């Protein structure tokens, strides 16, 4: 008993000491980033971190951001959520209470963005998720109204699922689809259900609707079942680390029909893992690096010079998230959580590197267009645009 | 008909990999009555060795398999010497916690080297034969046949060699056997080498069949293989093989005839029922506790 009391006192002293060291530097704006640096989608986290560092370096190299009569430098605090939902929530908590950040960017995958968004909402700190397309991320879990502090830089799944369903029906003219998706992941499940709904409403038929759970590697049973149902096309709304396995196993089982995917395919890693097996398939995403406008080209060139690769959609969306945040800071004119949130909610539209975003008052979801990319000889190439 | 045949083939492929990993659990348990929870992660390390050897040394399939097995076997022996041997007479819980710790170490060590999933280059040309609507890939055949061969070799070693006899003797009674002139340390090292070596082989074959590997791949597969070992009767080598094939078959067949969402739920309920009926596993023997 005595020992534990001493231990407790020591703990208090130590924690006081830690708090004492990190005294506020008033000429800095702290922005937190939660990224999937390790875990099952590390390429997503790496892109997010790179783009965040690039966006902040641009501001700081220009001397900082002018708020009122004072220039502020931006300090990035990057947290790894290790590809875990609980760690996403605790990272958000840490950024809000210990690091005292003004706003948070990330996490990206919806299954991590959801828990972090809940924390940000209760902590009354702005959170912009660059890549989470699941509708629930910006909706209050109890009332289903829009969250006040959560925003995103990407379109949402009801739109994306609809685009894909219509593209399959009208452009590819394929009327029988099969779906294989991860039932344990928010994003995959959401978009699979929307795809099915829109596809069947518009005259298509989903002949097989199969599931698996995160970290499964063997899909042979489900794929054999899909083969039996004889679809014209197979929809795989799954992450880039799983899609290559699914396609390769399908080919080994003698499935020859094409595949189609969603924005979770859009990482260069997909090509590395998949090789030639993914050629000639389509997927929807946020922007096309090869069909870019002037402003976007500048971003792409800058990113390439810094990191040596073409920025993927996560990188572009993270860059846009910072763009939105900086604009909100400028409008707010002061480094204050509430002021930033009020300014952000009043931005009517924003011209980002991923295209034009329109915000409706009171909603954190932008209205923006999607693109369909085709994988050609191991490269993502622009194929079609889809307007909201 | 072809559909059932296809699913049976899928089940055999998955089952043979489960069986190979389950053998590692069961062998270590048989000899030390300790559950080596790091085994799933040694399996993962096997797949990563396969990746390193195939990519950087550019060797073909057979040397890659043998080198990976050797490397993992060596790692298994080192782990036994450093982490488990000092605890041989400690309470069993300490050894299990150490094993969990070793597993976490292996995961995070691999993670620290590189968090990205890796792609194992195709070491074997894959040919798919089509008979009617049935597709058989050469890869499937190789995984199944190779696993069966390895299991037969192991069965021969355990049942028909002197070393195997010593292993069985130690699992019978650890205090008397040394008096008969058997070096317990040597035999335990050998058991670890064989058990983890098979885990390494399973890692290589898993990497061939499912060529995207990551540091966490051993966790779930490891748990499932452990369940196989328990279902077959932990400590019993033939039981582990049977357990592996049973779980493989149940998983595939449940997904084949029920909605695939229910796969793990139905599969594990069936296994639970089996354990209620036979708590000591299919080939395990009930061990009366003497007071």
Short structural description:
The complex is a heterodimer of chains A (388) and B (291). Chain A has 388 residues and is of the alpha/beta class.
Overall structural class of chain B, as computed from helix and strand content, comes to mainly alpha
Query: What is the CATH H-level superfamily of the largest domain in chain A?
Result: Response regulator
Low-confidence stretches of chain B: none
Helix content of chain B: over 70%
Radius of gyration of chain A: 22 Å
Mean pLDDT of chain A: 89
Strand content of chain B: under 5%
Please describe what this structure looks like.
The complex is a heterodimer of chains A (388) and B (291). Chain A has 12 helices and 16 strands. The termini of chain A are far apart. With 388 residues, chain A is α/β, with parallel strands linked by helices. The radius of gyration of chain A is 22 Å and the shape is globular. Chain A has helices spanning 2-21, 42-61, 85-97, 110-123, 157-171, 186-201, 220-229, 243-252, 268-274, 294-307, 313-332, 337-345, and strands spanning 28-35, 65-67, 70-80, 103-105, 126-129, 150-152, 176-182, 205-212, 233-236, 259-261, 282-285, 349-352, 355-359, 366-367, 370-376, 379-386. In chain A, a hairpin with a 2-residue loop joins β12 and β13. Chain A has 2 domains: 28-155 and 293-368, Rossmann fold, CATH 3.40.50.2300; 157-285, 3-Layer(aba) Sandwich (Rossmann fold). A 7-stranded mixed sheet of chain A has the order 8-7-9-10-11-15-16, with helices on both faces. Chain A has a 6-stranded mixed sheet with strand order 2-3-1-4-5-6, with helices on both faces. Chain A has a 3-stranded antiparallel sheet with strand order 12-13-14, covered by helices on one side. Chain B is mainly α. Chain B has one domain (2-277): ABC transporter involved in vitamin B12 uptake, BtuC. Helices cover 71% and strands 4% of the residues of chain B. In chain B, α9 (237-257) crosses α10. The interface between A and B is large, with 36 and 40 residues.
């Amino acid at each position: 008993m005595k020992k534990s009391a001493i231990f407790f006192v020591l703990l208090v002293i130590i924690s006081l000491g830690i708090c004492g060291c990190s005294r506020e530097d008033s000429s800095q704006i702290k922005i937190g980033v939660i990224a999937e640096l390790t875990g099952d989608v590390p390429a997503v986290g790496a892109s997010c971190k790179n783009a965040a560092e690039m966006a902040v370096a641009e501001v700081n190299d220009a001397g900082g951001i002018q708020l009122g009569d004072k220039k502020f430098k931006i300090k990035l605090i990057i947290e790894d959520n290790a590809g875990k939902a609980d760690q996403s929530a605790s990272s958000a908590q840490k950024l809000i209470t210990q690091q005292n950040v003004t706003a948070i960017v990330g996490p990206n995958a919806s299954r991590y963005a959801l828990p972090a968004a809940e924390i940000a909402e209760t902590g009354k700190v702005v959170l912009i998720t660059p890549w989470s397309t699941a509708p629930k991320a910006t909706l209050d879990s109890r009332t289903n109204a829009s969250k006040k502090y959560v925003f995103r830089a990407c379109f949402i799944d009801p739109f994306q699922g609809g685009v894909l369903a219509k593209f399959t029906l009208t452009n590819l003219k394929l009327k029988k689809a099969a779906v294989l998706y991860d039932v344990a992941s928010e994003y995959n499940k959401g978009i699979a259900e929307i795809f099915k709904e829109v596809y069947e409403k518009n005259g298509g038929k989903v002949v097989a609707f199969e599931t698996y759970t995160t970290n499964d590697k063997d899909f042979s049973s489900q794929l054999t079942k899909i083969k039996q149902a004889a679809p014209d096309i197979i929809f795989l709304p799954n992450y880039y680390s799983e899609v290559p396995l699914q396609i390769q196993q399908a080919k080994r089982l003698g499935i020859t029909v094409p595949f189609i995917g969603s924005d979770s395919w859009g990482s260069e890693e997909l090509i590395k893992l998949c090789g030639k097996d993914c050629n000639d398939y389509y997927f929807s995403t946020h922007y096309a690096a090869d069909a870019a406008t002037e402003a976007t080209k500048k971003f792409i060139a800058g990113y390439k010079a810094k990191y040596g690769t073409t920025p993927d959609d996560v990188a572009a969306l993270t860059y846009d998230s910072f763009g939105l945040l900086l604009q909100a800071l400028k409008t707010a004119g002061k480094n204050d959580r509430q002021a930033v949130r009020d300014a952000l909610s009043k931005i009517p539209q924003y011209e980002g590197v991923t295209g034009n975003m329109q915000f409706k008052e009171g909603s954190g979801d932008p209205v923006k267009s999607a693109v369909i990319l085709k994988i050609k000889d191991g490269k993502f190439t622009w194929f079609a645009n889809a307007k909201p | 008909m072809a559909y059932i045949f296809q699913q049976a083939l899928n089940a055999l492929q998955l089952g043979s990999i489960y069986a190979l990993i389950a053998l590692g659990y069961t062998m270590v348990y048989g000899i030390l009555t300790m559950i080596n929870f790091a085994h799933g992660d040694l399996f993962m390390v096997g797949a990563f060795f396969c990746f390193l050897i195939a990519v950087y040394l550019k060797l073909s399939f057979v040397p890659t398999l043998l080198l990976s097995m050797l490397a993992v076997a060596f790692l298994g022996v080192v782990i036994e010497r450093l982490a488990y041997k000092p605890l041989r007479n400690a309470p069993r819980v300490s050894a299990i916690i150490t094993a969990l710790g070793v597993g976490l170490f292996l995961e995070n060590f691999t993670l620290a080297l590189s968090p990205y999933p890796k792609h194992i280059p195709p070491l074997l040309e894959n040919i798919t034969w089509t008979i009617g609507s049935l597709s058989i890939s050469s890869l499937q055949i190789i995984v199944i046949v190779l696993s069966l061969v390895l299991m037969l070799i192991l069965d021969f070693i355990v049942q028909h060699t002197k070393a195997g006899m010593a292993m069985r003797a130690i699992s019978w009674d650890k205090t008397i056997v040394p008096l008969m002139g058997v070096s317990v340390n040597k035999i335990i090292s050998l058991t670890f080498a064989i058990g983890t070596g098979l885990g390494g082989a399973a890692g290589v074959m898993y990497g061939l069949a499912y060529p995207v590997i990551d540091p966490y791949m051993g966790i779930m597969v490891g748990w499932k293989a452990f369940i196989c070992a328990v279902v077959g009767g932990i400590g019993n080598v033939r039981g582990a093989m049977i357990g592996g094939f049973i779980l493989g078959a149940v998983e595939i067949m449940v997904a084949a005839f029920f909605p695939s969402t229910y796969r793990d739920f139905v599969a594990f309920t069936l296994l639970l029922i089996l354990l209620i009926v036979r708590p000591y596993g299919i080939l395990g023997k009930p061990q009366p506790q003497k007071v």
